[in-house]
Amino acid sequence: MKTLQLEFYKIKRRKVWLTMFALLSVQLLWGLWAFRNPKDWELESGWLSLLHLLSLLDGIMVPTMMSVLASRLADIEHKGNTYKQLETLRSAGSLYHAKAVCGSMIIMLMFAAQFAFFILLGYHLGYEGNPDVKYYLLSYGLKVASNISLFLLQLALSMVFANQMIPLVAGLGGSMAALLLMFVSTYSFLPWGGNLSASLVRSEWDEVSRISTYCYRTFSPLETAAVVCIFVWIAVFYAAGRILFTRREV
Amino acid sequence: MHLSILKTIKSERLKLRRSPVWLAFFILPIISAFFGTFNYMSNQGVLKSEWYSLWSQHTLFLCYIFMPALIGTYCSYLWRLEHMRNNWNSFLTAPVSRTSLYMGKLTLAIAMVIAGNAWILLLYYLCGKLCGLPGLPPEEAIGWFACGILGGIVICCVQLAVSMMIRSFAIPIGIGLAGGIGGLMITNKGWGLYYPYSLYCMGMRANNPQMELDILTFIVGSIFYILLFSVVSVVCLRRHE
Questions:
Q1: pLDDT digits (tens, 9 = 90+) for B133-192
Q2: Interface test with chain A among B46, B87, B169, by most A beta carbons within 10 Å
Q3: Domain that holds residue A174
Q4: Looking at the 3D structure of chain A, how many domains does it have?
Q5: Quick one: DSSP state of residue B192?
Q6: How high is the ipTM of this complex?
Q7: Cβ separation of B174 and A19 shorter than 8 Å?
Q8: Beta partners for A213?
C-alpha cells in the first residue's frame, strides 16, 4: 500500500493525468466532428453508434496512449537511476506490482471520464432514449480489461528497457496493427485486437441508401474465446513483466 | 558557420551511434505495405486505378496517423540525451552557435525523413510488382516523394521544437499522434494546407493520389512553418539557461 502511495506521489507533478486527458480530448473532438449535424436515423441509433466509434478510436489510439502512460511511470526510475536504491527498501516484485496497480487505476479513471464525456455528448446531440446501462457497463469493463492488458505489455517493456524508444515504437506498431486488424476481422487473439474483440456493437453499411445500421453483436464461440483471451493476456503480461523485472540486474 | 554545422552533424551522429532508432522507420512502413497490399488485392473490384489505388492503400494510415508520431519519436530521441542529467550544460557550452546546434539535429531528422520516404517508395514499387501491376509506378510518384519530404520537414521542425521544450520523451510522441489524428479532421474540412501536421499527407497525396495539389500554397505554407518553428527553436535555445 505504501509503495502504491509512493507511486502516486512520484507522478504528482509529472502531468500524467494531463497527458491522458489531452489524448482523450482529441477523441472528444473527433466525436464532435464525426457526429455533427446528426440526421434522424443517426439520432435513433445514436447510443449504439457512440459505442462503435469508441471501440474504433480506442483501437487506434490506445496502444500508443498506453505506451506513453507506461513510459511516464517507468522512465522516472530510469532517469533517476533509482532501481538500486529502491530495491534495498522493498522487493522488486512489489515495486512492479505498485506500478501496475497505479497505471491500472489511472486507466479505470481515464475510461470512466471518456464514457462520461461521450454520454454527455450523446445527450447534447439529442440521441433518442438513454444509453443501455447494462451494455455500457459491460463495454466499460471490457475496455478497461483490454487496455490494462496493453498497459502491462508496455510496462514490462518500459521497465526492462532503459531506452524508452523501444517501448514507444512498440506502442506505435501496436496502434498500426490494431488499425489493420480492423480490416481483417471482427475479433483477434492478438493483444492489440482486444478493443476490436471487446466491441459490443457491429455496424453494417448499406451502399444503396448510404446508411450505417448498428446493432448489438452476438458472439460466436471463437469471438467469445477472443474476449477471454484478453484476460489471459493480462495474466501473461503481468507474470512475464514481473519475472523479467525481478530477475534483471540493477 | 558551415563548418560548425558539419561539426554538430558529426556529433549528433556520434550520439546516435549503435542506437536502433532507424529500425522503426524500417519496420512500420513494412507493416503498412503488407496490409495495404493485402487490402488492395482483396478489393480489386473497387480499387481499379492500379498503381494509384495501391499508393493510397500503402500510405493512407501511415501518413495520417503514424508518420507524425514516428517523426516525433525520432525528434524526441534527438533531444533525449540533452534532457538527461546535466547534459544541457555541455550541449550549450559547445564552441558553436546555437543555430548550428539546432541545424545539426534538424539535418539528421531530415535525413531520416528522406530515408523513410525512399523506403516507402521502394516498398510501393516492390509490392506493385508482386501484385502483378504492369509497367512502372506513375511519374507523379517522384512529386509525391518530393512533396512528402517537404511536409515531413515541417513535422520535424514542429516536433523538434516540442521535444526541446518538453523534458519527457513520451509526451511529444503523444502530441505527434494527436496532431496526426487531428490532421485527418482538418484535411477533411479542406484546411489541410494550413495545418502543419497535414502537410505531410497532403504532399504524399495519401488519401487521393490523383488529387491536384495547390503546389504554390503547399510550398509557401511548408516554408512558413519550417521557418516559424526553426526560429522558435533557436530563440528558445538562445534563452535556455
A1: 888 888 888 999 999 999 999 999 999 999 999 888 888 888 898 898 888 888 888 888
A2: B169
A3: 2-246
A4: 1
A5: G
A6: 0.77
A7: yes
A8: A204
